[in-house]
Amino acid sequence: MSDKKILLLRICKPWFKDLIDWKTQFRFREVKKYWETRLLEKNWDFKDFDEIHIKNWYHWDSPMAIVEFKWNLWIFEHEWKQQFKLELGKIIEVLNYKKEKEFN
Fold first, then answer.
1. 67: domain CATH number?
2. N or C: which end of the chain has fewer CB within 10 A?
3. Which candidate, 52, 94, 43, places its Cα nearest to that of 73?
4. How far, in Å, CA of 78 to CA of 30, rounded?
5. Does residue 104 sit within a domain?
6. Beta bridge partners of 84
7. Within-domain flag for 45
8. Which range of residues forms the domain containing residue 75?
């Protein structure tokens, strides 16, 4: 059993394709209680993760990218909303993904 600290994010197909094609290097989440508890300690320091698992939807065998966690996490304002901005590291592994069949 692994003791890795993993942050799980879910995204839709076009965004997943952009991630795999390395067209996006950031993920954004609105600052709300749900994400505050997952990304912040009680004293508002950012939590530390070993990896980010980015899954394309909710099914058990959906495509998933395992991405290196970087320490670059910010809170900023975008479109009049406070957002968490997570910088993604290199892609470690991609599971259950066949580019030819997924997005043609």
1. 2.30.130.30
2. N
3. 52
4. 9
5. no
6. 29, 75
7. yes
8. 6-96
Residue 36: burial class (beta carbons within 10 Å; 0-12, 13-18, 19+) = middle
Q: Is residue 86 part of a domain?
A: yes
Spatial separation of the C-alpha atoms in residues 16 and 57, rounded to whole Å = 10
- Residue whose C-alpha is closest to residue 71's, from 91, 55, 85, 54: 85
**Predicted TM-score of the model (pTM):** 0.84
The average confidence (pLDDT) of the chain is: 88
**How many domains are contained in the chain?**
1
Instruction: Say how far apart CA 39 and CA 45 lie, in whole Å.
Output: 9
52's tokens: 């980010």
Q: What is the pLDDT of residues 31-64, one digit of tens each?
A: 999 999 999 999 988 999 999 999 998 888 999 9
Q: Is 88 exposed, middle or buried (0-12, 13-18, 19+ CB in 10 A)?
A: buried
